[in-house]
Structure prediction request, 462 residues.
Amino acid sequence: MPAHLTRLLAVLLLAAVPLGPTSARAAAAPEPPTNPYLGPVGTATMHGDAGSSDVTPYAGPGASPSQVTTVSRGAACPTILIGSDGLLVSLCTRILGRTPVAQLSAPDGRLLAELELAKGSLLGGVYAFLDRDDRLVVVDGHGDLLRIAHARDAAGRYTLAAVRRTPLASVLGDDAVVGLVPDWSGRVVMATAAGRVLVHDGTTGSTHALTLGVGERIDNTIASSPAGALITTSHATYLVRTDRGVPTVRWRAAYDRGSARKPGQLSWGSGATPTFFGPRTGADYVAITDNARPQAHALVYAAGTGRLICWVPVLTPDRSGSENSPIGYDRSVYVASTYGYPYPAYPDGAGTSDPVAAPFTGGMERIDVDDDGQGCHRVWANEVRSAAVPRLSTADGLIYTTTRDAWGAFRTAAIDSATGELKGERWIGWGLFSDSLQMVGSIAPDGTQYQGTVSGFVRIRR
Prediction:
């Protein structure tokens, strides 16, 4: 999901029991590398971890959740993170005033505190992360890098406050931060809309910048591993080293961006946040999707060198495209189609899609890297109409998402990662305010799933 989804949201705002022993479970493999400067594993970033794997170590609510509760906030909430204290830290955009706001919630959904953020071209952005002190790290509309902490006073009242503010306006100018993640030394690596990488060192106070390819934009957040920061622009994927705080390109791999934006995507190029995954270190490989015609491809590279391992056609020809980050775990990549997804509006500058419109039919595929690491093969494909960025639980082997039917009804969904079979659904709601709009859900250690919607979020329990 691209960071300029916030602009899209601004336009919109204007106008079970865990599976038993016979159930498939994800094969044992290394979890994604744990970044020591991030908050809890699986819940500290929009895509779960620094590597943007969209994997969680926690069992989810299962195929037949017992409770689905709508939490209305009068705001779209694309980022729902969970701290080590179990409290939810969300980044939302209010319906009235289109104001970005950080919110602190109890596990049952009660609002505990909130803090308005400065609006900007990206209304504060949708991407943020929790640091190891459970502080929300985000860049606001003034171009300030914030660390927002929550506290509880003697009377039991919670507060949210920016306890650290680093102005970046002199470096950013008219540019805007799209996504950010810490590197393995604790520096904050940021990607900007104009195709730049910024690295801020909180110890020295220095900020270094690097411009990637001329005319290349960045529309998605970034990933990181001990090898470096992974960034996909509108033309290519880069691995950027951040040694001593100075960003340098280690490798660049161009991809087929197609001739135009496809319907169901918000920008022209890959819709994917790049993903680290792999069977040995958890970050052996890199996965993205391209924007080729007539059929998109899953691309897998060797993380260390950028060597192309495979280029596999995915999803239905002539109805093939994805706005979402792929799931990456062990040797497997899971890609969900967003082609034709009926966004009620598109962000400024998105341009006209080709074709102008198309039906949303969905579909999901699993691609595995061959055992010898020299190629890939398709394992399964299904017709699930995923309406959110899917998340894989390595504890129960299920992929969790929501679905949207042809009449605009939304349901929870649990998919067997081994076979692609849809194991179960449960009603969420109907219409715009129940729309999960290809946002990401988070799964708490107790198995509760929190899924953002246009009007707040949904709480799904076993």
Notes: The chain has one domain: 17-75+181-461.
